[in-house]
Amino acid sequence: xxxxxxxxxxxxxxxxxxxxxxxxxxxxxxxxxxxxxxxxxxxxxxxxxxxxxxxxxxxxxxxxxxxxxxxxxxxxxxxxxxxxxxxxxxxxxxxxxxxxxxxxxxxxxxxxxxxxxxxxxxxxxxxxxxxxxxxxxxxxxxxxxxxxxxxxxxxxxxxxxxxxxxxxxxxxxxxxxxxxxxxxxxxxxxxxxxxxxxxxxxxxxxxxxxxxxxxxxxxxxxxxxxxxxxxxxxxxxxxxxxxxxxxxxxxxxxxxxxxxxxxxxxxxxxxxxxxxxxxxxxxxxxxxxxxxxxxxxxxxxxxxxxxxxxxxxxxxxxxxxxxxxxxxxxxxxxxxxxxxxxxxxxxxxxxxxxxxxxxxxxxxxxxxxxxxxxxxxxxxxxxxxxx
Length: 387
Prior knowledge:
Elements: E1 5-8, H1 12-24, E2 30-33, E3 44-48, H2 54-60, E4 66-68, E5 71-75, E6 78-82, E7 86-90, H3 91-100, E8 104-106, E9 111-114, E10 117-120, E11 125-127, E12 130-133, E13 143-157, E14 167-170, E15 179-188, E16 191-200, H4 207-220, E17 225-241, H5 243-249, E18 255-256, H6 272-288, H7 293-310, H8 312-323, H9 331-337, H10 342-350, H11 355-362, H12 370-375, H13 380-386
Helix pairs in contact: 1-3, 1-6, 6-7
């Protein structure tokens, strides 16, 4: 089959694009290729209901592994239940939906891409009118990052665990390796994901240490049981980003999307909402014009440049967190943030902060000294560190 759309990377971004395009244009042939042997059991993608447009909530509802009406956070001097719904999908559920939508998925396929197709390891070629690269993050001289590192253990507990809703952040744990918190997702009354997460300066990940920390947290809460799944990740947290320079370097070849294009929430690392918006752009182009690599590139470039401008303030917050605050005190900035109005918090996660929201975040008693905050303002010096 010669596909109309070829996507390298059968993960979140590639999967959402395939779903959106097949729904908008069932006549188009969509192919995903991935070097993995099958759909991942090691990925859970989550977001707040308020992060997504209603049509995406409806589209993802049948394949959500978990959905909850609210969520909570916990800090040493502040705890809060929040009204926004929260949901999660996983790799197997997403790829099942992609296959059901009629897309072709080819596993065990290492490829080399260009703007007109892909070459497989055996030298054979798959031509395509439109080629997208969704193979995940890789270092870029145009993006300066910190790291969100995590290892999660999913337990089938011997008795009901009693966790009623997602715990987005439990920062009452001992702070180490930067800002540390525990993330909990209660999939069933006896199935619980416990994830030890660190916002760290370095990208090294001691899987065994973080896995043990998750198990220690379980033991401290009286939970025992059988480990059924494990996941790990090292996500970029954007401190500085030159989107124009990035897209100038990608003026030819396959069109990058997702983490590969720096399209993720700068502070949280959440990529599902951004991936859904990109999928809509690809599907919209397929409906109103020819879906070709040269037509798609300027559409996604314009979106990425606009998104980078909108996210400038979020990158500043990251510089204040990583460069303006001692690692063991980073939790205080988040603790202060979660005392703000709930609507503001929802807009923050959705990447839709207003000017008034930005002022509200930085006014009042400063979380770090004013002089330190001023030194965090410039973005360009961090990019020059990458040069």
